[in-house]
Design a protein that fits this description.
This protein is mainly beta and 178 residues long. The chain has one domain: Neuraminidase (6 Propeller), CATH 2.120.10.10. It has 3 helices and 15 strands. The strands form 4 sheets. Strands 3, 4, 5, 6 and 7 form a 5-stranded antiparallel sheet that branches. The two termini are 31 Å apart. The mean pLDDT is 92.
Amino acid sequence: MVSEVNGTWDTAIEVPGTATLNAGGNAGTTSVSCASAGNCLVGGSYAPNRQHRQAFAVSEENGAWGTAREIPGTGTLNVGGAANVNSVSCASAGNCSVAGFYSVPCQGIQCADQQALVVSEVNGTWGNAEEIPNTATLNKGNFAGAGSVSCASPGRCLAGGFYSVSASNQQAFVVNET
């Protein structure tokens, strides 16, 4: 990651903590949001081993980066071994939301069984990732994900994504947090 301050880009650095998490050697960031200068959130995924991908987030507070860590609750949800943060949004420092996906064990011959997830940070404390309400019911084709999240104020966010009605029919969804 790299920061820009007063119109000048710093030198890129490794996301703090990903070297420890990423024993499988396949990590990347997918989204960043800054509530104010020096108060940002970065999300993405890492590989704890070569067969698994897990979602992470790392915060910058007052210009100092913390250490990347697995998003709480994704370890329990992600029994299929593929999770990612697709989007992050911060309404204010320490009040952010994350949207993405996790995978569940394959059913039948389709092996891309994936569910949409969201999780929020409130006053610097992360909740547990959860399946976006009602997406499992809608997701008859077993392939869903949240692609974007935007927060207007703490606790007031909107996320959007897709779910599959069948293997060849995807539909859009939106969900709000109030």
